[in-house]
Amino acid sequence: MFWTVKSVEPLDNYWLFLTFEDKEERYFDMKPLLDTGVFRALKDPEIFRTVKVAFDSIVWNNDIDIAPETLYHDGLKRI
Q1: Tens-digit pLDDT profile for residues 30-42
Q2: For the domain that residue 50 is a member of, what is the CATH number?
Q3: Which domain does 66 fall in, by range?
C-alpha cells in the first residue's frame, strides 16, 4: 500500500504529528535520526519547523525528506 501524508505539524522535542490520507494520525520521533547524515541540519529548531507536505510525504526547506512509508510504519498511533 502507498501512504500519502496530508498534514504535518512540528512539535516540541523534535516530534512530528502527521495525518495520512486514510485519516490515520501518527507521531514520529525525529531524534534518532538527528545524528545521521543530512538529518543533522534538523537539529536547528528553525530549520526543523520548516517541515511541510510535498509529493505525498514531508520535506524541509533544505530538501531533506523522509519516505511516507517510514513515517507511517515507524510512527506511533495517536491514542
Answers
A1: 999 999 999 999 9
A2: 3.30.2020.10
A3: 5-77
